[in-house]
């Protein structure tokens, strides 16, 4: 029976759409991309092997012809799609309507080579109305979008695959460079350099607690004897002193305390009162970038987690498409928002008329709507049936969308000037006269100390001449603070502001930066590593354009102009990659000039020694004169947990001294008589009982728990760590409970016997040396979390004959299933809701067998074979290979000007 085949990217999307299509439609999922440039040598077709350009995946000598291949894990999917197409009388390509989605549809068209009519079906939300409308308004493939995506893909490959091998040779193996990635890393490094070069200044001021008519309020010192006192903005970051020409008074501690005592006993007078009415307008609905920023600020979700969660909400029909630069709302969305406002908050909270927003982002693309709840009427968060972070993210989107159609908030900004003795003070307040959209939504801030816009700061009723009573006056000391590190939210904001990259790619870029070791996430801040410093310094010196924000932004503009047909893609790639100033020539010419020793050396502000990048990580290097007068070179490994942000001169000297002179003993263990030492290793500081010797080849060791500073460690604490694990008591259900310190930090464990153990990590407030039985039982009663604090997204159950449960987790590299100690990644496009126990068992079995095969091949390698006789030169490859590689003439079909 003939049918219409609809192809989407994921099973979740397929299942949702299937419910809205009439009979005679069959929906299949491509599981993301079905074809791409080769990722490794094993994916290169035989016809192309041996070609100089094959590893690059782009034939730069043949008009930058891309070498597209079908990865092994996608061949089965392609076969299934071809089988599904056999009985179809029409093909609808329903991938997402953006550059990447258009590209996926084009690749499907090239691979499937359908002999039936093909149309593009596009929609921004998955609802019955939207799908019905999309069926009535199908269109042809948009080749301009395909041109733009393919050119972008080729350009990114040229940059990444040309520079990355250079970094392997000159810095460290396994590093990567990227057109946007390397600029992002440089932003992190520049901020850290500024922090290290920062000189803190100190100043004092006063804070007074006053009372008028039984109500308290606070005021801060502004002037003494008519002269303004210094604040943080008056200090020079490079010297720590007052800026040149700053006409301010710098109070010392003694002066501040004396002044506090003086005004405490003096009468106070209100000199001026000012009330300034103001209004606040709601912010626009979410774009991809602003959703990532606000989700990071308010929900503490990474950009990658936000996009993965939003993808699931979109595919299940809860929100509109989540990759968009537009803040536009459709008439349907405005109507739904206004209905929500009127029913939930009342008519007085509605804006006088529908409010529409315009996109201001540089390089805005694709005329999508903003991200909003899907449908003609919005489901309230409580009516969705969602939970966890799905619910939290949906609620964030719902609130921001609804707030966009609410009335402005009316506020009165209050300021009161007061005087006492020869000192002047000011009290600031804020009164919310009408909350308006504050009832639904208040935007977060990148400044953790900033008060939320919607919070009132009320002052008592004050008039000129009033005499408030001082209750307490404190002298406060302040230190100026270095510029804050980038959070994911502030980095995304900076990239978008500078016009670097596409907001839809920020999540994967930040993920790559962390995965490749260029930065760690500490708290909510991105802290660059020593490797980031080394790579950034090399690129700044030898390839400055590629890490320059304005140059990268201009590249982004050019790519957008290519998508509109204003710039020809081939001449642009030729100019970028070839010629005297091209990237290929630059890398070839400068490779010999780059000294690997210098590239692996990092000079940090405030250090007399140097840091170098070695095979096993970063290490310190310094020269010193030995007791016999000879100069010797000292090298000491830096613990992996130490970043450039943490390393100061005192810490460096301690690590080098220990390496040169041997460790100093903290004291003696009274039970054994052995000395206890504090040592530094590759994985951080640790304590050790006794020295390594023939009689004691493996002395007892214990790592320092996170947050314990080596300089603060006492002998009793060291002895406690060395005696771990310690018995806490018996579990009510049998077995014993212990506290210990392991690879992933401090823990409690319930030993049930027969090798069955149940572990829980200790929380930040728990001390492994002090935790008791009752607290351990409380922790063991909590749901078990995966490595890195992850909670299972879904419990698939126990396979027949097994005692271990199969669960689905969300990790740094995507979704995976886990049983015992075996993990297996889910295929691209497969969601937690889609995977079954049977599929999980199959994935886990394949992973386990692959591990066994790998161990066998490592244990017993075959003897080297005699070189085979030289084969005759391979014949010219056919126009289209079995892997789907396109000939040059076929590629030209998608090139601007040749379509």
Description:
- The chain is α+β, with helices and mostly antiparallel strands and 899 residues long.
- It contains 23 helices and 33 strands.
- Strands 7, 8, 9, 10, 11, 12 and 13 form a seven-stranded antiparallel β-sheet that branches. A four-stranded parallel β-sheet has the order 2-1-5-6, with helices on both faces.
- Helix 5 runs antiparallel to helix 15 (549-563) and helix 9 crosses helix 13.
- The protein is globular.
- The two termini are 36 Å apart.
- The model is unreliable at 863-899 (pLDDT under 50).
Structure characteristics:
single chain; 899 residues; alpha+beta; disordered C terminus
Topology:
Blueprint: E1 3-8, H1 11-18, E2 25-29, E3 58-59, E4 65-66, H2 72-86, E5 88-93, H3 99-112, E6 118-120, H4 128-136, H5 143-170, H6 181-197, E7 202-212, E8 215-224, E9 227-228, H7 253-264, E10 268-280, H8 288-299, H9 303-315, H10 331-344, H11 388-403, E11 409-420, E12 423-434, E13 469-479, H12 488-498, H13 503-515, E14 519-522, E15 525-528, H14 530-542, H15 549-563, H16 569-577, H17 583-591, H18 596-599, E16 601-602, E17 610-614, E18 617-625, E19 631-637, H19 649-661, E20 665-668, E21 675-681, E22 684-689, E23 701-703, H20 715-722, E24 726-730, E25 736-742, E26 745-753, E27 756-761, H21 773-780, E28 785-786, E29 790-791, E30 794-797, E31 806-811, E32 814-819, E33 822-825, H22 837-859, H23 888-892
Parallel strand pairs: 1-2, 1-5, 5-6
Antiparallel strand pairs: 3-4, 7-8, 7-13, 8-9, 8-12, 10-11, 11-12, 14-15, 16-17, 17-18, 18-19, 20-21, 21-22, 22-23, 24-25, 25-26, 26-27, 28-29, 30-31, 31-32, 32-33
């Amino acid at each position: 029976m003939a049918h219409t085949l609809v192809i989407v990217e994921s099973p979740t999307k397929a299942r949702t759409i299937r419910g809205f299509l009439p009979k005679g439609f069959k929906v299949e999922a491509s599981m993301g991309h079905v074809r791409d440039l080769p990722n490794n040598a094993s994916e290169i077709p035989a016809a192309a092997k041996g070609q100089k350009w094959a590893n690059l995946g782009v034939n730069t000598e043949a008009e930058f012809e891309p070498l597209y291949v079908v990865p092994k894990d996608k061949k089965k999917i392609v076969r299934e799609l071809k089988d599904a197409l056999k009985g179809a009388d029409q093909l609808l390509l329903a991938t997402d309507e953006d550059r990447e989605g258009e590209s996926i549809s084009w690749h499907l068209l090239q691979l499937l080579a359908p002999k039936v009519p093909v149309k593009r079906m596009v929609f921004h939300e998955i609802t019955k109305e939207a799908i019905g409308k999309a069926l009535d308004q199908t269109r042809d493939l948009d080749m301009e979008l395909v041109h733009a995506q393919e050119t972008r893909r080729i350009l990114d490959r040229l940059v990444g695959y040309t520079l990355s091998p250079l970094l392997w040779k000159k810095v460290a193996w396994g590093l990567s460079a990227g057109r946007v990635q390397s600029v992002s890393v440089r932003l992190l490094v520049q901020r850290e350099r500024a922090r290290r070069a920062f000189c803190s200044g100190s100043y004092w001021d006063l804070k007074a607690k006053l009372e008028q008519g039984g109500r308290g309020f606070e005021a801060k010192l502004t002037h003494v004897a008519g002269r303004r006192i210094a604040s943080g903005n008056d200090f020079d970051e490079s010297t720590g002193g007052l800026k040149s020409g700053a006409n301010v008074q710098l109070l010392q501690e003694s002066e501040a305390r004396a002044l506090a005592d003086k005004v405490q006993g003096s009468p106070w007078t209100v000199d001026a009162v000012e009330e300034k009415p103001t209004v606040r307008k709601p912010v626009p609905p979410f774009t991809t970038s602003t959703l990532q920023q606000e989700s990071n600020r308010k929900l503490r979700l990474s950009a990658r987690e936000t996009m993965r969660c939003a993808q699931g909400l979109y595919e299940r029909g809860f929100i509109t498409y989540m990759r968009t630069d537009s803040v536009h709302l459709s008439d349907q969305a405005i109507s739904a928002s206004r209905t929500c406002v009127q029913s939930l908050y009342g008519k007085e909270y509605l804006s006088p008329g529908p409010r529409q927003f315009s996109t201001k982002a540089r390089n805005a693309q694709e005329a999508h709507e903003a991200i909003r709840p899907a449908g003609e009427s919005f489901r309230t968060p409580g009516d969705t049936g969602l939970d966890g972070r799905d619910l939290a993210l949906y609620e964030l989107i719902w609130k921001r969308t609804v707030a966009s159609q609410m009335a402005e908030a009316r506020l009165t900004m209050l300021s009161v000037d007061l005087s006492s003795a020869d000192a002047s003070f000011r009290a600031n307040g804020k009164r919310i006269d009408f909350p308006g959209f504050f009832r639904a939504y208040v935007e977060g801030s990148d400044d953790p100390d900033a008060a939320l816009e919607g919070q009132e700061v009320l002052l008592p009723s004050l008039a000129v001449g009033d005499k408030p009573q001082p209750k307490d006056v404190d002298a406060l000391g302040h230190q100026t603070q270095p510029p804050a590190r980038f959070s994911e939210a502030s980095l995304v904001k900076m990239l978008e502001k500078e016009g670097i990259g596409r907001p839809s790619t920020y999540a994967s870029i930040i993920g790559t930066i962390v995965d490749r070791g260029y930065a760690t996430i500490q708290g909510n801040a991105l802290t660059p590593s020593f490797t980031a410093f080394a790579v950034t310094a090399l690129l700044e010196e030898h390839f400055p354009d590629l890490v320059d924000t304005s140059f990268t932004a201009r590249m982004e503009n050019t790519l957008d102009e290519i998508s509109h047909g204003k710039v020809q893609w081939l001449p642009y790639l030729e100019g970028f990659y070839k010629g005297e100033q091209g990237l290929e020539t630059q890398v070839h010419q400068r490779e010999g000039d780059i000294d690997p020793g210098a590239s692996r050396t990092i000079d940090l502000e405030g250090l007399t020694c140097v840091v170098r990048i070695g095979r096993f990580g970063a290490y310190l290097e310094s020269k010193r004169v030995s007791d016999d007068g000879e100069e010797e070179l000292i090298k000491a490994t830096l613990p992996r947990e130490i970043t450039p942000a943490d390393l100061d001169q005192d810490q460096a000297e301690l690590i080098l001294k220990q390496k040169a002179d041997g460790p100093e003993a903290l004291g003696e263990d009274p039970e054994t008589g052995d000395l206890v030492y504090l040592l530094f290793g590759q994985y951080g500081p640790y304590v050790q009982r006794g020295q390594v010797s023939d009689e004691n080849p493996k002395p007892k060791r214990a790592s320092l728990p996170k947050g314990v500073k080596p300089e603060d460690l006492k002998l009793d604490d060291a002895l406690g760590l060395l005696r771990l694990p310690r018995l806490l008591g018996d579990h009510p259900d049998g077995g014993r409970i212990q506290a210990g310190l392991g690879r992933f930090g401090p823990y409690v464990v319930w030993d049930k016997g027969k090798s069955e153990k149940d572990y829980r990590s200790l929380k930040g407030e728990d001390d492994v040396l002090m935790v008791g039985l009752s607290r351990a039982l409380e922790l063991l009663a909590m749901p078990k979390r995966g490595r890195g604090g992850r909670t299972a997204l879904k419990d698939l159950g126990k396979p027949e004959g097994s005692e271990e449960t199969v669960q689905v987790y969300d990790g740094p590299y995507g979704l995976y299933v886990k049983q015992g100690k075996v993990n297996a990644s889910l295929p691209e496009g497969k969601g937690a809701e889609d995977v079954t126990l049977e599929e999980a068992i199959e994935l886990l079995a394949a992973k386990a067998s692959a591990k066994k095969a790998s161990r066998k091949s490592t244990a017993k390698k075959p003897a080297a074979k005699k070189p085979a006789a030289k084969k005759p030169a391979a014949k010219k490859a056919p126009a289209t290979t079995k892997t789907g590689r396109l000939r040059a003439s076929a590629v030209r079909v998608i090139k601007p000007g040749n379509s």
